[in-house]
Amino acid sequence: MAEAMLAADGTPLKRSLARALRRQKLRALALIAPLLLFVLITFIVPIASMLFRSVENEIVANTLPYTVEALADWDATGTDLPSDATFEAMFYDMFIAAEAKRHTRLGTRLNYETTGVSSLFRQSGRRMDDVADISYEPLEDLDKAWDDGATWYALFNASGDADQALLSEQRGRVARLSGSDASADINFAPDAQAAALLPLAAREYTAWAVYVATQDNRDPAERDPWEAVAPALVTDLQTADLSGYSGPMADMLRTAQQANLTVPNFTREFADMDEDWATLEPWQTIQTHAGTYTPGYFLNAIDAQKTPEGIAWQPEEKQILLTLFGRTIWMSLLITFSCIALGYPIAWLLANLPMRKANVLLILVLLPFWTSLLVRTSAWKVMLQQQGVINDVLVWVGLVADDGRLIMINNQFGTIVAMTHILLPFMILPMYSVMQTIPPSYLRAAKSLGATNWTAFWRVYFPQSVPGIGAGSILVFILSIGYYITPEIVGGTKGVFISNRIAYHISSSLNWGLAAALGTILLAAVLVLYWAYDKIVGIDNVKLG
Amino acid sequence: MGLPPYATLGQRIWYYSFRVICGLIFFFLVAPIVVVMPLSFNAQDFFTFTPEMLRLDPEGYSLKHYRDFFTNPQWQLALKNSLIIAPLATIISVSLGTLAAIGLSQSHVPFKGTIMAILISPMIVPLIISATGMFFFYAQLGNWMESTLGLDKGFVGYVKVVLAHAVLGIPFVIITVTATLVGFDRSLTRAAANMGAGPVTTFFRVQMPLILPGVISGGLFAFITSFDEVVVVLFVGSASQKTLPWQMFIGLREQISPTILAVATILVVISIALLTTVELLRRRSERLRGMSPG
Q1: Which ipTM value was assigned to this complex?
Q2: C-alpha span between A429 and A369 (Å, rounded)
Q3: Among A263, A288, A297, B164, fewest CB within 10 Å belongs to which?
Q4: CA A198: distance to chain centroid?
């Protein structure tokens, strides 16, 4: 057994080397770290946020928390409407949502699933005050003091112990509803005794106090509460036992209890507002899509939807996305094949010409490659229009009558021609670099052994050029299924791709969840293809220019 | 691959028809770009050749579309924005990208494959998907910068677009600079260190001059990526950050104006200049590396 070798400073050589290696690694990482961090924050996180958005569905539970809770054990496949308690919960949820102007957003969200929900929510939101007034007006007639915010504040603001649990629960409710912070200090805390005696009214008053204090920056002590506290109070008074109560406004509460004011019949009020509330459909929609995470957008992305009975296809007239996915793939394949057909002869010519001539011709390939995408797209618009260059030439030659000009733009033909042109250099360059490595002597050898030109090409040359075709094809296919600009400009309605649909949902229909789901599917497809590309060609072989 | 003197008639026919086919394909590649140029001098607001132009009548030609480009405030705003955004994005991608490429070309880098995949990903992910992800995230980022940091809205808009374009340019810098570094002779840095130069001096006096062609061509790629990019800027930016491609895109989609052709011609000229530069740099780089020992 030999003695351990020592470095100059006396430490064992092994350890000394390991330390040097570690230092080298750390230095390399320190050089990479700033960029890695930059790419992670500015690129990877945005992509991850898109993936998250495609399944995220907090809006239903955030906007209608009590309704979702009340609906949890309702049998959506039966024939009975939800319970009266559900309608009551819906009223309080909808009231605050309408005050915060969030009900229309939820309506829009649910409208993606069931057409008509949007207008139902929008119209009902406006009517919530009327329902609340059914209790508010008699209460006010009974004693003018109920019309004064100070009365309510005195009733619910903590004189003894405060109910901190209720306060933080309502802070959470407001924060989730409004999508902004609701943790600022407010000049209010619910009184524990009042909250125990009048739970519903305390809840609604606290929610209001949190809302005005954190969202409107007003002091709840000086403002009048929303009318929704009135039905809540009247409901509470029906069962509250006031005999032992001696807190603020005790007399007013007793008077109100004896007056036996009517609680609105929420079920009937909703049915009066819009008869759709008396049908199962809106409730089924809310219950089916109540979850915080939903596969719903992905189902929509493949023309399916979630229903109370499970997963089903969308109605016939709404099924467009699968067709669009199919068209995207089909047209990308056509573009890839046209690129092969046009690129192969060029690559062959370039690889077999003397270097000097080939370099000159290569410029003709690189020029379009380097020219702005929009320049090339506008060029095709100029060429293909009905009053464009190609039609003019055809009319001038006499092949086409002046009134029979060809329609070559705003259809699939336009997209395929323009994209073939744009992506052709991506096919030629990999083919060319593979063909350069095929020794021309192989062809000569084949011919000297008696092969015809065709046999020599097909049996000897072509098989060796297949890797180039594969590399170019995958590259062109990947690029083309994600294309947006060119189909948007020359594709019309028939020649657009799935990416145009994504852009439409982002900027026009604002169905961001569906856009994110479509994007995720497309991303998955591209990553799979890249994985294949890496296996076949190797990512390291990507060359520029 | 000339035609042998003993070629049969069929071979001759094939030889020439193959040449014709190739010529037609080259025509297909170049014609649309070439057609744009004369049309941009059209005296009429048409997208096609007028009879005057075909007769080569000077009346049929004019510079009015170029004049429009240089006087129209919309186009000038777009040009200004492009000239602000693209250089800034290029500076970020080149500085961060070169450092990282040097780090990546060291012999022992842990997780090299994963890091490389992450750094290259902006080039792999289709632009529409990058744009979608950035749309969601950068809106929140912008709100945060405006409300928490109290920054000006217009400034935040530029920051968002510059960051987005910088990250799109990074893969090109990484690829070109690492490719240059493959041929870099490490004994040169050791020799410099041996003669007493610190790491910083070594970097700027020895390594940088040798890899400079790669850095510049990476920078040109990053520049052209930003200068030519439209999808991400459409989603991330607002109208006050509209760039030349944005203005062209809107022009092509909505009101079609021949000024686009004038802009297109200018851009083609710029890209020819860039292409030439990159080609010259590549040759210089090969020559430099050929001269270096080892």
Answers
A1: 0.86
A2: 10
A3: A263
A4: 42
